[in-house]
């Protein structure tokens, strides 16, 4: 690969100093490489977006919606290639890769519909004081930098790109250097649709490229999804420019299981919450709070289910869980296994890397984990579940909320009134009741506390890329 950056409507070779190696995590081997974008190329991408902004924001909402529908249709036409690439570069099982693609398609379709429903630019505002008129305008915020992670490529970029384009913004997208290939489909689709040059720009690279984009004074907004450590750097960059930022960061989420649950159903929800994408989710429900009355029946069943999951190469095997996506993440998860041994944690399942090619670890369950354990409080980003027992509803709420994160939670109970009450008491941005983590484009996504700033998806995702202008006129 050589022409791996999309700037001002053209594919160009990278001129940076970093060589990006793209790996198959099931084999632990590279299958593509290219040079990163240089700082000068980031400048060119931002300049192209700035140049394209006046015409794009003046484009009618229905025409912008037509482009978004085109993105959805083109993604569907590339279905098998994109699913295969998601499996090969991320290590996702086929059923997960299929859902990722369907999610991206649904996102572009939804924001096309929302763009068509945008109110006229002017909306009259009634005033209590006579002698004045007032109106509001919703305008695109401008040129936005979008920095997306490696765990859900194609999906997270759709969550940002679709509402930004719907609002009339122009964008510079920086994919993760771990999974840079699949986002190139968006540049290919832009070409196929005749999207005006500069409306979408894609620059690939490592930390140097990300810093050049997040520090760029030509941006009007930054939207970042990733780790808290990098998110804090992005926030500092945004604060230096006094510009808005959306941050979707980490989590250490709880799943609360009350003793009136069906054990088999509860196990299904628990396993899905910790092994989907090999646990590499900011929303992974990695803290299991199980009520005393069901714990002795549930934990052995959960242990057996995790031990029987099929772990392997999704391109060659029927699997329930694939590898971790990068060697760095594999080493990080392995370090937590070592910490668990040092802390003397009770390991009911897993707790080790698998002795095979690639970056595989076993689905893992630790029981009766103390609250001062690093594994209970720190985001691991792997299929590592820590369990604690609780006696009362009040204790469950207190322990679930005892975290510096606040992204999601799951509540499992046959008493729906109690489940709704607990959901209302949890200090998070999204709660599931008796469900796997089904995410719908119409709902909001984002967290409280250290899990980020702002919301994506739904109408909130569109408003994140809109600016409100108020015009007041004296009639005298």
From TrEMBL:
Residues 11-471 form the Aldehyde dehydrogenase domain. SUPFAM superfamilies: ALDH-like. One of its GO terms (molecular function) is oxidoreductase activity, acting on the aldehyde or oxo group of donors, NAD or NADP as acceptor. Keywords: Oxidoreductase. InterPro entries: Ald_DH/histidinol_DH, Ald_DH_C, Ald_DH_CS_GLU, Ald_DH_N, Aldehyde_DH_dom. The keyword Amino-acid biosynthesis does not apply. PROSITE patterns: ALDEHYDE_DEHYDR_GLU. The active site is at residue 248. The keyword Oxidoreductase applies. PANTHER family: ALDEHYDE DEHYDROGENASE (PTHR42804), ALDEHYDE DEHYDROGENASE-RELATED (PTHR42804:SF1). Belongs to the aldehyde dehydrogenase family. This is Betaine-aldehyde dehydrogenase. It comes from Pseudomonas monteilii.
């Amino acid at each position: 690969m050589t022409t791996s950056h999309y700037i001002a409507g053209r594919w160009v070779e990278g001129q940076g100093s970093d060589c990006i190696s793209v790996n198959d995590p099931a084999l632990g081997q590279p299958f593509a490489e290219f040079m990163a974008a240089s700082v000068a190329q980031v400048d060119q991408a931002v300049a192209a977006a700035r140049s394209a902004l006046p015409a794009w924001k003046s484009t009618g909402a229905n025409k912008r919606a037509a482009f978004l529908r085109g993105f959805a249709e083109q993604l569907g036409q590339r279905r098998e290639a994109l699913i295969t690439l998601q499996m090969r570069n991320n290590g996702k099982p086929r059923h997960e890769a299929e859902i990722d693609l369907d999610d991206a398609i649904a996102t572009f379709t939804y924001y096309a519909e929302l763009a068509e429903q945008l109110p006229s630019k002017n909306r009259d505002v009634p005033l209590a004081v006579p002698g004045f008129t007032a109106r509001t305008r919703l305008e695109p915020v401008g040129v936005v930098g979008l920095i997306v992670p490696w765990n859900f490529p194609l999906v997270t970029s759709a969550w940002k790109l679709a509402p930004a384009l719907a609002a009339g913004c122009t964008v510079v997208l920086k994919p993760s250097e771990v999974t840079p290939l699949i986002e190139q489909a968006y540049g290919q689709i832009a070409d196929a649709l005749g999207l005006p040059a500069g409306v979408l720009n894609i620059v690939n690279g490592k930390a140097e490229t990300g810093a050049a984009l997040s520090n760029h004074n030509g941006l009007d907004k930054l939207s970042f999804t990733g780790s808290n450590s990098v998110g804090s750097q992005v926030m500092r960059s945004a604060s230096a420019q006094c510009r808005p930022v959306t941050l979707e960061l980490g989590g250490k989420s709880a799943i609360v299981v009350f003793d009136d649950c069906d054990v088999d159903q509860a196990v299904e929800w628990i396993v899905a919450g910790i092994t989907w994408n090999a646990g590499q989710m900011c929303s992974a429900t990695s803290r299991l709070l199980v009520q005393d009355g069901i714990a002795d029946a549930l934990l052995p069943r959960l242990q057996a289910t995790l031990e029987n999951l099929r772990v392997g190469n999704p391109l060659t095997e029927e699997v329930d869980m694939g590898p971790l996506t990068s060697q760095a993440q594999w080493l990080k998860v392995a370090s937590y296994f070592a910490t668990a041994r040092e802390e003397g944690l009770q390991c009911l399942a897993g707790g080790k890397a698998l002795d095979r090619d690639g970056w595989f670890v076993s689905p893992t369950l630790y029981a009766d984990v103390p609250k001062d354990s690093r594994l209970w409080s720190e985001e691991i980003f792997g299929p590592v579940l820590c369990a604690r027992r609780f006696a009362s509803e009040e204790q469950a709420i207190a322990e679930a909320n005892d975290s510096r994160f606040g992204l999601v939670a799951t509540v499992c109970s046959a008493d729906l009134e109690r489940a709704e009450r607990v959901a209302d008491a949890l200090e998070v941005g999204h709660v599931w009741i008796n469900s796997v983590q089904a995410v719908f484009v119409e709902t909001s996504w984002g967290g409280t506390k250290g899990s980020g700033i702002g919301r994506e998806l739904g109408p909130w995702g569109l408003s994140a890329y809109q600016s409100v202008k108020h015009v007041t006129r004296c009639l005298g």
